[in-house]
């Protein structure tokens, strides 16, 4: 980034302000020309009423021509250099007019951190949930956050699942659906839809493994196909429906992403692209362990207690 600034490129970087390490990063970039902003920066966490409202979006926009969106963060840990090992993630590279929708979202965040309304016409218009077509690929940007009256991405997931006729393939590191989303998935399984859910076999938080286990168990007993990814940690957030529609982005299947975080996803309505996601999904299945209901039934009492306790705490994760 510093190199690009020295070449005359304007570089704007927004990072979430809850991590104290970000202040070291701010000092590092001082006087480099990189415009670094902390989103809802937190000096004293216990006294910050916005501590729960985090910017979880991961978007890169280049010259308003190219955008990247997905689950990938920037850091050595996400390159497989941390304790958890290899990270399996999914991001997409986008060209065309749809990039302007991501740019609007970026400048919306910038208006928050600068605490002022940005009046440039191209970024101040209200962002709408609309379809855009580039090279015969229909796409839709969907954002959600505490500034929205409804959980738009969660509602998008529910709509996609309700409209499924054959299959629903999900990848997520955190599977903590609310009641409505869980009931929608249960209905899909009972309707004969091929529901596959892939979660990590490793967890980056001690509670997550048991929370995931509780919720996938609810679907496993009904006939859903559940897989634990074994080649490291799966951080991908995708849902593939009927091999026709895919939603990829930053939103996990959990309360925090649905109701508290600022998130962004991209729906892609294209069979060829959807098929590439299906191909990758089956590659991931090949290095995953399929859970069986018999294994699930043989859980110890201690395991069941841990799952139940973590289930009670799930809304805070």
TrEMBL record:
GO BP term (any one): cardiolipin biosynthetic process
UniProt cross-references to SUPFAM superfamilies, sorted A to Z: Phospholipase D/nuclease (SSF56024)
Keyword entries, A-Z: Cell membrane, Membrane, Repeat, Transferase, Transmembrane, Transmembrane helix
Residue intervals of the PLD phosphodiesterase domain: 51-78, 230-257
PROSITE patterns per UniProt: PLD
UniProt cross-references to Gene3D superfamilies, sorted A to Z: Endonuclease Chain A
Localization, UniProt: Cell membrane
InterPro entries in UniProt: Cardiolipin_synthase, PLD-like_dom, PLipase_D/transphosphatidylase
CDD domains noted in UniProt: PLDc_CLS_1 (cd09110), PLDc_CLS_2 (cd09112)
Catalytic activity, EC: 2.7.8.-
Bilayer-spanning residue ranges: none
GO molecular function, one term: cardiolipin synthase activity
GO cellular component, one term: plasma membrane
Domain of life: Bacteria
Main enzyme class: transferase
The keyword Repeat appears for this protein: yes
Protein's UniProt name: Cardiolipin synthase
């Amino acid at each position: 980034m510093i190199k690009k600034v020295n070449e005359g490129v304007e570089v704007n970087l927004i990072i979430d302000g809850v991590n104290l390490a970000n202040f070291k990063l701010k000092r590092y970039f001082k006087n480099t020309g990189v415009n670094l902003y902390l989103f809802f920066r937190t000096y004293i966490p216990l006294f910050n009423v916005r501590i729960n409202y985090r910017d979880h979006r991961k978007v890169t926009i280049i010259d308003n021509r190219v955008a990247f969106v997905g689950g990938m963060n920037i850091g050595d840990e996400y390159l497989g250099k941390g304790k958890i090992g290899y990270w399996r993630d999914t991001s997409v590279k986008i060209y065309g007019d749809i990039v302007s929708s991501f740019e609007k979202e970026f400048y919306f965040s910038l208006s928050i951190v600068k605490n002022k309304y940005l009046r440039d016409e191209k970024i101040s218009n209200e962002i709408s949930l609309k379809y855009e077509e580039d090279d015969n690929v229909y796409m839709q940007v969907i954002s959600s956050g505490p500034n929205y009256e409804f959980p738009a991405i969660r509602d998008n997931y529910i709509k996609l699942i309700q409209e499924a006729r054959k299959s629903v393939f999900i990848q997520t590191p955190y599977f903590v659906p609310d009641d409505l989303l869980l009931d929608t998935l249960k209905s899909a399984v009972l309707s004969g839809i091929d529901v596959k859910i892939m979660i990590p076999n490793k967890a980056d938080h001690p509670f997550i493994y048991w929370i995931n286990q509780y919720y996938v168990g609810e679907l496993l007993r009904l006939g859903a196909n559940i897989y634990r990814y074994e080649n490291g940690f799966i951080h991908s957030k995708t849902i593939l429906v009927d091999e026709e529609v895919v939603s990829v982005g930053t939103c996990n299947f959990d309360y925090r992403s649905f109701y508290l975080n600022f998130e962004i996803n991209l729906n892609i309505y294209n069979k060829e692209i959807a098929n590439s996601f299906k191909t990758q999904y089956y590659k991931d299945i090949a290095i995953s362990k399929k859970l069986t209901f018999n294994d699930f039934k043989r859980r110890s009492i201690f395991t069941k207690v841990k799952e139940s306790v973590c289930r009670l705490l799930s809304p805070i994760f």
